[in-house]
């Protein structure tokens, strides 16, 4: 995964790279954290929960894990990485919940 993302980042040049993790397919929250971290170390500018078409998409739990990975990565690297939730956000309340999560975890 790391080398594939590095290659894609190199091909992007100055364009921003968004990596879709398909969190519902990763099997555990530990794997979500690891995939998030690897994607960021490889140069991803944004990490995205899913395409929105998987059976399991953006959940607040996986969002929390991804936010923690982003925060930990920032502490080590000083580089800010964006988060993009996709799938499962259907109501205004869903959006508010995600805004609160990101505000509380990432500022």
From TrEMBL:
One of its GO terms (cellular component) is cytoplasm. It catalyses: 2-deoxy-D-ribose 5-phosphate = D-glyceraldehyde 3-phosphate + acetaldehyde. It is an enzyme of class 4 (lyase). Pathway: Carbohydrate degradation; 2-deoxy-D-ribose 1-phosphate degradation; D-glyceraldehyde 3-phosphate and acetaldehyde from 2-deoxy-alpha-D-ribose 1-phosphate: step 2/2. It comes from the Eukaryota. InterPro entries: Aldolase_TIM, DeoC, DeoC/FbaB/LacD_aldolase. Its EC number is 4.1.2.4. GO terms for biological process: carbohydrate catabolic process; deoxyribonucleotide catabolic process; deoxyribose phosphate catabolic process. GO terms for molecular function: deoxyribose-phosphate aldolase activity. Keywords: Lyase, Schiff base. Belongs to the DeoC/FbaB aldolase family. DeoC type 2 subfamily. This is deoxyribose-phosphate aldolase.
């Amino acid at each position: 995964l790391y080398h594939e993302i590095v290659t894609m980042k190199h091909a992007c040049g100055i364009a921003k790279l968004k990596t879709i993790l398909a969190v519902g397919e990763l099997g555990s929250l530990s794997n979500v954290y690891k995939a998030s971290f690897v994607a960021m170390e490889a140069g991803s500018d944004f990490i995205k929960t899913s395409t929105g078409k998987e059976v399991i998409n953006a959940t607040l739990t996986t969002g929390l894990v991804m936010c923690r990975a982003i925060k930990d990565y920032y502490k080590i690297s000083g580089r800010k990485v964006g988060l993009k939730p996709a799938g499962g956000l259907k109501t205004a309340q869903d959006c508010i919940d995600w805004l609160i999560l990101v505000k509380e975890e990432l500022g």
